[in-house]
């Protein structure tokens, strides 16, 4: 530490410098610290010049002299941060392709720099490894992935050039393996590294900084990464069929002329939903369909293939349930007569 | 144009040359580098850098010396802060500062900054544009002294 033996020791300063000044001097470092994050950073290649001057009077009137000038070149600081743009897990389904995670890559250094992008999908801490197929750069900077507009990343020639203290959006495109089940998570991390080099803070690359100075690894190590995650949102369907026999005798015996009421309960489980769910059942031999007996929940459906969900085509009944979310059930009933 | 510049130099140079024999002002800039030794103790080293990076803490040291034959009265040292440097502190050297490019001077605690809505806020170290030390008593013949302040590369 260089504590300056103040001029005031030999030559007292003006009386305006009082106790308040001393107090202020003690407070200053803390305040300065709180503001260290304030942008913008001095651009790499800038020269900081400092010159002081002294004014005095040795009897011949006021004179001014300048000190020597000290020039400091500002080196390029290599810093980068990566942040996931997905605040929550991105839903996916087994076997789905073109699944998108979004990331923000910020050049937090003070020089223009290319960044090498890569992904890590097998770091663990999840249930499966998404299969990364491509990385895209958001060319129109609209924040949403559009393969026709955005730029497919090619390592090397395509390493994005990012201006200091600006960001780009990067999309990681992945395929979800077909073997995953509902609730599985798959994590992918995007890694961005300064092309000039990475390392420990303070490591430098001589002459490789913007503006002719060195490139110096900053506090981020000149590389950064963040994780995004997919969560599998799938649904499973179980069908349970039961039959109740009624006859004219008031018993449950399946005698000719008895009526069989079939009940099919479809239960959808999972966090996802199923699309295009349809229940089809053939009319058993030696029985005859009771016309107009198809019911879905409490509603009767017509036998014709028309606007309602049910139909009978002479051999089977069919009820088209469409999309059904996990946690819901659908109950279909129909009747036949024993021949 | 060339003539004007020449005239300007001609006007300035004799004064400078004369003054240089009277009072010398020497300017050094150091960077504070914190290193941790094998025992885990932090040491602050002052290096005289050629290059710096944003966030580096700089120590500006001004040495003055009256090498003339007469005491130097009304002695004021002024250091405009380089625009890429944010003022941090001046140790215990008690300077006056300016936050408006050298128009008004005072203790940082007494200065304020006009806001767009017409109000004023208290000046912060980051607002400092100039630093100066004004000595009450003449600098005797042969006397030397040292002043310092710290700043951070923006």
What does this structure look like?
The complex is a heterodimer of chains A (339) and B (154). By secondary structure, chain A is mainly beta. Chain A has 2 helices and 26 strands. Chain A has helices spanning 7-10, 19-34, and strands at residues 47-50, 53-57, 62-66, 70-74, 76-78, 80-84, 90-92, 99-107, 113-120, 131-137, 151-152, 161-162, 166-175, 185-194, 204-205, 215-217, 223-232, 235-246, 259-270, 273-282, 287-289, 295-296, 299-300, 310-312, 316-325, 329-338. In chain A, strands 18, 19, 21, 22, 23 and 26 form a 6-stranded antiparallel β-sheet that branches. Chain A has a 5-stranded antiparallel β-sheet with strand order 6-8-13-10-11, with no helix packed on it. Chain A is rod-shaped, with a radius of gyration of 37 Å. The N and C termini of chain A lie far apart (107 Å). The model of chain A is unreliable at 1-37 (pLDDT under 50). By secondary structure, chain B is mainly beta. Helix content of chain B is 12%, strand content 45%. Chain B contains 1 helix and 11 strands; from the N terminus they run H-E-E-E-E-E-E-E-E-E-E-E. A 5-stranded antiparallel β-sheet of chain B has the order 2-1-4-11-6, with no helix packed on it. Chain B has a 3-stranded antiparallel β-sheet with strand order 5-10-7, with no helix packed on it. In chain B, strands 8-9 form a two-stranded antiparallel sheet. In chain B, a hairpin with a 5-residue loop joins strand 8 (112-114) and strand 9 (120-122). The longest helix of chain B has 19 residues, at 2-20. Chain B is flat, with a radius of gyration of 19 Å. At the A-B interface, helix 1, helix 2, strand 1, strand 2 and strand 3 of A face helix 1, strand 1, strand 3, strand 4 and strand 5 of B. Strand 2 of chain A pairs antiparallel with strand 5 (73-80) of chain B.
């Amino acid at each position: 530490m260089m504590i300056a033996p103040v001029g005031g020791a030999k030559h007292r300063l003006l009386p305006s410098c009082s106790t308040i000044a001393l107090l202020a001097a003690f407070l200053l470092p803390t305040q300065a610290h709180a503001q260290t994050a304030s942008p913008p950073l001095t651009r790499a290649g800038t020269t900081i010049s400092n010159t002081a001057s002294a004014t005095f009077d040795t009897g011949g009137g006021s004179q001014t002299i300048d000190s020597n000038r000290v020039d400091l070149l500002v080196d390029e600081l290599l810093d980068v941060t990566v942040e996931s743009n997905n605040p929550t897990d991105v839903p996916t389904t087994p076997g789905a392709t073109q699944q998108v995670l979004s990331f923000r890559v910020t050049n937090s250094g003070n020089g223009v720099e290319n960044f090498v992008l890569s992904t890590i999908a097998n770091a663990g801490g999840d249930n499966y490894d998404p299969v990364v197929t491509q990385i895209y750069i958001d060319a129109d900077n609209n924040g949403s992935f559009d393969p026709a507009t955005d730029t497919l990343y090619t390592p090397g020639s395509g390493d994005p050039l990012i201006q200091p203290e600006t960001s780009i959006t990067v999309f990681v495109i992945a395929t979800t393996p077909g073997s995953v089940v509902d609730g599985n998570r798959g994590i992918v991390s995007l890694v961005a590294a300064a092309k000039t080099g990475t390392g420990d803070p303070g490591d430098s690359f001589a002459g490789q900084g913007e503006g002719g100075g060195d490139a110096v690894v900053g506090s981020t190590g000149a590389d950064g990464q963040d994780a995004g995650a997919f969560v599998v949102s799938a649904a499973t369907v179980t069908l349970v069929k039961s039959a109740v026999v009624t006859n004219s005798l008031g018993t449950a015996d399946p005698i000719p002329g008895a009526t069989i009421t079939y009940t099919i309960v479809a239960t959808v489980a999972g966090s996802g939903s199923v699309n295009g769910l349809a229940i089809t059942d053939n009319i058993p031999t030696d029985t005859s369909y009771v016309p107009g007996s198809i019911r879905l929940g409490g509603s009767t459906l017509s036998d014709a293939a028309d606007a309602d969900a049910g139909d009978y085509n002479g051999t089977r009944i069919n009820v088209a349930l469409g999309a059904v979310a996990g946690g819901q059930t659908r109950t279909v009933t129909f009747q036949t007569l024993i021949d | 144009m060339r003539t004007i510049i020449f005239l300007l130099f001609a006007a300035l140079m004799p004064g400078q040359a004369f003054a240089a024999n009277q009072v010398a002002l020497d300017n050094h800039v150091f960077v504070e580098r914190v290193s941790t030794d094998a025992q885990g103790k932090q040491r602050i080293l002052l290096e005289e850098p050629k290059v710096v990076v944003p966030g580096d803490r700089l120590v500006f040291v001004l040495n003055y010396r009256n090498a003339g034959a007469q005491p130097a009265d009304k002695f004021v040292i002024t250091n405009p802060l380089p625009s890429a440097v944010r003022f941090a502190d001046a140790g215990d050297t008690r300077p006056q500062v300016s936050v408006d490019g050298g128009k008004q001077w005072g203790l940082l605690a007494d200065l304020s900054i006009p806001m767009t809505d017409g109000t004023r806020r208290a000046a912060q170290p980051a607002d400092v544009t100039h630093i100066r030390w004004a000595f009450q008593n003449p600098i005797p013949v042969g006397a030397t002294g040292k002043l310092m302040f710290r700043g951070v590369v923006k």
